[in-house]
UniProtKB/TrEMBL annotation:
Keyword Membrane: no
Chain positions covered by the region annotation Disordered: 365-387
InterPro entries the UniProt entry points to: Anhydro_N_Ac-Mur_kinase, ATPase_NBD
Full protein name: Anhydro-N-acetylmuramic acid kinase
Organism phylogeny: Bacteria, Pseudomonadati, Pseudomonadota, Alphaproteobacteria, Rhodobacterales
A GO molecular-function annotation: kinase activity
Origin: domain of life: Bacteria
Catalytic reaction(s) noted: 1,6-anhydro-N-acetyl-beta-muramate + ATP + H2O = N-acetyl-D-muramate 6-phosphate + ADP + H(+)
Annotated organism of origin: Aliiroseovarius zhejiangensis
Keywords, in A-Z order: ATP-binding, Carbohydrate metabolism, Kinase, Nucleotide-binding, Transferase
Signal peptide span: none
NCBIfam families assigned: PRK09585.1-5
Pathway: Cell wall biogenesis; peptidoglycan recycling; Amino-sugar metabolism; 1,6-anhydro-N-acetylmuramate degradation
Length: 387
């Protein structure tokens, strides 16, 4: 491990509690689609998932989303950030407060915050939201700033859900390599070999962002029809994909890079222009085909053929996208909910799981998941001060 976690940052009481076995942890995620805050409880020792608890989703209002959108691509010092960060914190606080009224009571919080900019090989990575302030406001230990240590050590800082995907594979009893495909604003995959016990062992996980997924679809329908999304992918399903446009999209240098690799939400600024002459339905269908083609291209990197692809994230509700994936992949493509996992909450659960790993001094990423030189534990632990 490159950077030993300073275990003294998790205070004595928390450390002692974590040594005794699984704890309930709360995780929160506000993803690149800017739809809202997911919050979920899981019980874990940071290795094995012992159980899943209640979940909450708090959407951003249309006005809040506008403010958040203005902050996209912006760094900590930009004038757009304070108002956007305030929204992120307020909506998280509301979601967490709601969940803390239910049983069981969490013993720590994993707080991802909102990514506004991600340029791991340039300016770094920027997640807004103050974990220290949240810890004080909630009187709860908070693990946050999950990505910067990995980036500081040469990694991509993303994706970070892979170690949780590895735990999920074992939770559902998988006995052969499989792929978790998250279709959020951006798409990302984790190829997992569940026969290897540790997620940070060589050959256990290969992960990377596949390409744009739902974000270009949302942006197009927002711009053309003032709607937040194409519900169920219905409009896209009525269109026809422009295959020549998809082929042009696939010439982007990102697809020639070897994984691990990661993306910012708007790393394909030319994409809307490629469909500007198409009807709404054909444009949506073409962007849908691009998202699926990017996944298919990405899966060519799998170390061995996966037995199945389990689809998580909001994009699995888009039937046009699921259809495009099934047409392009030669392995079964399943909605992850069919396994008993919750595809709407997997990322929030992932940050609860990672919070426990950080507080216990365990690793959160590895060369196969972020390209970091050696397994590393990221994240800061904030302990509320006594009043
Ligand atoms: N019923 C639906 N029909 C069509 N699209 C949907 C539906 N539900 C969610 N989506 C799409 O899924 C996306 C939200 O999914 P999710 O919450 O997994 O993304 P995210 O976590 O914000 O993004 P990321 O994983 O990139 O950080 C939105 O872009 C939304 O348009
Ligand atoms: C920098 C950043 O926030 N990246 C997100 C984004 O959304 C999907 C994809 O791009 C993934 O790399 C990551 O999120 C998930 C939760 C992850 O870290 O695994």
């Amino acid at each position: 491990m490159l950077k030993a976690i300073d275990k003294t940052r998790a205070d004595g009481a928390l450390r002692a509690r974590l040594q005794q076995g699984p704890v309930w942890a709360l995780g929160c995620m506000s993803g690149t689609s800017l739809d809202g805050v997911d919050a979920a409880l899981i019980e874990t020792d940071g290795d094995v998932i012992a159980g899943f608890g209640p979940t909450v989703f708090r959407p951003y209002s249309a006005a809040q989303r506008k403010t958040l959108r203005r902050a996209l691509g912006k760094w900590q010092d930009a004038p757009e950030i304070p108002a956007a960060a305030q929204i992120v914190e307020t909506v998280h606080h509301a979601a967490i407060a709601e969940l803390m009224q239910t049983d069981p009571t969490p013993e720590l919080l994993g707080f991802h915050g909102q990514t506004f900019a991600h340029d791991p090989r340039g300016r770094g990575t920027h997640q807004a939201g103050d974990g220290q302030a949240l810890s004080q406001a909630l009187s709860l230990p908070v693990v946050w700033d999950f990505r910067s240590a990995d980036v500081g050590l040469g990694g991509e800082g993303a994706p970070l859900a892979p170690f949780f995907h590895h735990a999920c594979a074992r939770f559902i009893g998988a006995d052969a390599p499989l792929v978790f495909l998250n279709l959020g604003g951006v798409g990302n995959v984790t190829w997992v070999d569940p026969r290897i016990e540790r997620p940070d062992a060589v050959g256990a996980c290969l992960a990377f962002d596949t390409g744009p997924a739902n974000a270009p679809l949302d942006d197009l329908i927002q711009a053309r029809r003032d709607a937040a999304r194409d519900e169920g992918g219905e409009l896209a399903a009525s269109g026809v994909a422009d295959q020549a446009m998809v082929d042009r999209f696939l010439t982007h240098p990102y697809f020639h890079r070897m994984p691990p690799k990661s993306l910012d939400r708007d790393d394909f600024p030319d994409l809307p222009g490629l469909v500007s002459d198409l009807s709404d339905a054909d444009a949506l269908r073409s962007l849908t085909a691009c998202a699926a083609a990017a996944v298919a291209r990405g899966l060519e990197h799998c170390p061995s053929p996966p037995k199945q692809v389990l689809v998580t994230g909001g994009g699995r509700h888009n039937q046009a996208l699921m259809g495009e994936l099934r047409a392009r992949l030669s392995v079964p493509v399943r909605d992850i909910d069919a396994t008993g996992l919750n595809g709407d909450m997997l990322e929030a659960q992932a940050f609860a799981y990672l919070a426990v790993r950080v507080a216990r001094g365990m690793t959160t990423s590895a060369p196969g998941t972020t390209g970091v030189a050696a397994p590393v534990g990221g994240g800061q632990v904030s302990i509320p001060k006594a009043p």
